[in-house]
Prior knowledge:
InterPro entries (chain A): BPD_transp_1_N, MetI-like, MetI-like_sf
Largest sheet of chain A: none
Protein name (chain A): Peptide ABC transporter permease
Structural class of chain A: mainly alpha
Family (chain A): Belongs to the binding-protein-dependent transport system permease family.
GO cellular component, one term (chain A): plasma membrane
Membrane topology (chain A): Multi-pass membrane protein
CATH superfamily of the largest domain in chain B: Periplasmic binding protein-like II
Radius of gyration of chain A: 24 Å
Helix content of chain B: 25-40%
Largest sheet of chain B: 6 strands, mixed
Oligomer: heterodimer
CATH architecture of the largest domain in chain B: 3-Layer(aba) Sandwich
Amino acid sequence: MARYIIKRFIYMLITLFVIASLTFFLMKLIPGTPFSTAGKLSPEQLQIMKENYGLDQPVAVQYAQYIVGLLKGDLGISFQFNNVPVTQLLLERIQPSLVLGFQAIFFGTIIGIVLGVISALKQNTWIDYSSTFIAVLGKSIPNFVFAGVMQYYIGVKLGWLPVLFWKGWDYTIMPTIALAMFPIAITARFMRTEMIDVLGSDYITLAKAKGASSFEVAFKHGLRNALIPVITVLGPLTVSLMTGSLVIEQIFAIPGIGEQFVKAITVNDYSVIMGTTLLFSFMFVVIILIVDILYGVIDPRIRLSGGKK
Amino acid sequence: MKKSKYSLLLTLVLVLSVFLAACSGGNNTDKKSDGAKTSNAAQEIKILSKSEIPTLDSVKTTDEIGFNVLNSINEGLYTQDKDGSSVPALVDGEPEVSEDGKTVTFKLIDAKWSNGDPVTAQDFVFAWQRAIDPATASEYGPYMMNGKIAGAQEITDAAVAKKDFDLNTLGIKAIDEKTLEVKFEKVLPYWKDLMAFPTFYPQNEKFVKEKGNAYASNAENLISNGAFKLAAWKGPTAMEWTLEKNDTYRDADAITLKKITFNVVKDNNAQVNAFEGGEADITDILSSDLVPQYQGDERMVSALQPSVYWIKMNYKNKALANVNIREALAKAFNKEDLAASILNNGSIAANYFVPDKFVTTPDGKDFREKNGDLIVFNADEAKAAWEKGLAELGLDKLELSYLGGDTDSAKKQDEYIVNQLETNLPGLKVNLESVPFAIRLDRAKAGNYDLLHSGWGPDYPDAMTFADLWLTDSPNNEMSYSSAKYDGLIKKAEEAAANPEEYVATLQEAERVFLAEDYGVAPTYQRADNILISPKVKGLVALPFGPNYSYKWITVEE
């Protein structure tokens, strides 16, 4: 196991290096400058600005400088936020996104699993149909529509929850619900299909024959095997939720990273684009590794490091 | 196997621990601001902003919210009054102007920084030198000073050529602690307005040097001399900040408002929801799709801005170098409809490039009153000019590219204009390209377009800020327009700057030449901005240049 993880860790570093290099050159293909007033500046003034930030150097030199900085742990500075270090910016902005993403995936998965299992147990009853209905809604209606509707009715009209901002736990409820709709739908659908499949297998019949209650059958014997496909989709979904959602963060005025990333690209904030891409990639490869480890834990038939020699 | 019994639990613990590790320290954003409860009489308001404040270092600020906050917490030699005119702030009475009109000597009043230090003439010298110093990397410093303050252009040129320069050659000198001498490059009819612009504010040398790179990076590293002081601001990434009344302000008795809380809300609908939900008293500028639903609502305030938009026609394209083709394009789209139906936010059709309600001529009338409408929509005249132009070029059809913005509003406008052009000018095919701002800027600078929809917002209230755009060597010309006659007129106006009547008359003539003779650009509209403001908040003032709003005279009523 340890050897496997070390090997994966080395691959991870290589992956990140390749991503950093590709992103750097792709990013330099975007036209324009990071200076917001570039439209007003004369060529001489623009030249001085570029010299100050080393942007007059050939791209290859800039790349070398960036990689050297990266090895020293220096992610550079942001242009749009007047030289705030990118590391500080990322640390500040990732927190709300992580909190929201975690809450959404946590509650979303639990509710989704419960809905899915119940649907499978009560197949083709009104319970199954309503759970399917919820899943279809969650999957087909974009989360910003939920967000907007909730903000207006629950926040503005009823005044039950804060309309927006990020000042306490109650401020996270509506954005979490909006973000959780998709994981609920996905998990419920996968869970139902897998569960129906698993419940038809021999060992479940055996368990039933031995007199296990249907609750015990479903959650003790069935759930583990049915979880594997869910874990597969949950990995990437977790990353996409934790890296923030542009729209949800904008609607609820949350200082998150999703909005930040998109803005950085549109204003050519080079170091922020690089830093965010690297952070997201890092989260992604780590989650993939965790998912792979989890497979082994859930299903003993899956071995990570090959059999004993 | 005991292990397998707990493996599901282990799975959950593993997953949880990853999440929790990632979330550690994530709770420090969850505190602050419970003191913002407003009773009706409390002199406190809440304002929404669409963006964070990138910097509050006055020599580096370039954005509207930055200027708004700076204008509230700092003051320069002059300041904008309720009517937008520039009135003395730190200047004591009328300054002494030299005979050639290029040197002005100011006497300063006794004003204090919020740390107790007096505001001195040296503070101005320090700030201005810092603004022009290439090492500061200020964008607005050179932009506002070059060609206006003596010695500024020379410093920029020397820096580009990697030659030595001396910041003391900039035309600003402290004669003594309370006397400041400023030398202009030429006679500037608008110098008082320039002195009211945040780039020309003073900075406390001792404080700035003591803080070094941390200067103006948060509320603790900033001092102010204005009506308010910054009570809380964690820095450029902060999405909330607070201003409080500054008791050491020179005119503190005139300020009623005690506290302003700003919150960043980037989504347009969320701004409206926050306003309706009582989370804000004043919104940022509404997007045009939200304006119709507040039409006739007393809470929506519309203000005509001095920003004018136009279609630039690139002279590098042979067809567009033909004046008849340009005339045809400029007259071929219905701008009244564009403003009324497509924009639908109080914007008005522009038949000019110097905006309406922007500058007043010496006789007390608006600049527009004499010059009036120079290019008006007229489909018949457009078609006639079009056919004449095509005949001269020996063509029967023409294909042009059209570069526009990629926002919803920009796309709607551009689609309308393109449709009008193709309908009214037979044989014309226009290929619309909607691109992000940075790309549009890049292609404009490179002259890589046929038609380009863009605009200009002024930095000082003088027709020259628009008129000098079209000079042959202007970096903002961007369309290879070059007219000896036009260049001559602008030069003539500059030379006549000491004589206001002649100055304005010459600029008006230049506008007529550029539009009605040369059809240099095809003006489209002059923008209006709309905000929502709570009925109990009185005295918000919209300003014509630099900062867009002043909060100084706000009072909250029952």
